Input
Amino acid sequence: MILIDTSSWIHLLRPYGDLTARGRVEAALRAGPPADARSFNWSCRNPMSKETEQRFPRPLSGACVDPLPSGLVPARRMLEGRHVRLEPMDPAMHADDLYEASHTTGTGRAIWTWLPEGPWPDRAAYASHLRENAGALDRIYYALRPLPDGKASGQASFMDIHAGNGVIEIGYIWFAPSMQRTRAATEALCLMLDHAMTDLRYRRMQWRCNALNERSRAAARRLGFRFEGIFHNHMVYKGLNRDTAWYSILGEEWPAVRAVLQDWLDDANFDVRGIAKRSLGAMMTARSPRS
Output
């Protein structure tokens, strides 16, 4: 089951039935990687392993920042692509669809395994949670609606917004089973990256996730984020310790990342069944280390 956490990203989990949220996390950690994840560096679970993911080497800088960041905060407005529309969270409009997608099946409820909150006991409690999200002043939440006429099938947010410094994060992301591994899911996050980095001219885009969440870490790399390191004992969530992995895209790296994303999303990269011909992760890996 794909879910996202940079909190938040895209994760494949086995369903664990009616286990508690904490029980699902513990079961996932005991189970290790699924069979289709053998190519991933699962040794990130073991901080003593020589295979542990290495920080991307960036030079230190004390350079003058010119031009200065725009100081603009993302507005609560719709972002629309060819395959998905991001609608500012409206509990009255989105709560039923999102509850159905994330609470009515085992695979749906597994979405909450790596996220800091949820699942909720009933529809009313979840709708109350969405009202809190929609009213937050420090985050901007979106419901994700596949086009042309799909139901709301996921959510994402801008968070940790420091407009004066040009720093922003995308997080608290999850996709319903019907939207996972789709062109619409990737396009949704590309729209958010492009809005912040191109339209609003931010200079740092962040991604944070549980360091044990290998699918979220792989998703970050797939989108062009580069690994910065681990904050150990960073948080306590659902009664468990969380070590946090940090990733980022810098302003000077964004043009190359954007070009790769656009190439991957282009119609020429998809066959008649809608399956991508090239791997986005491989395309990102192949780009210049200086971009």
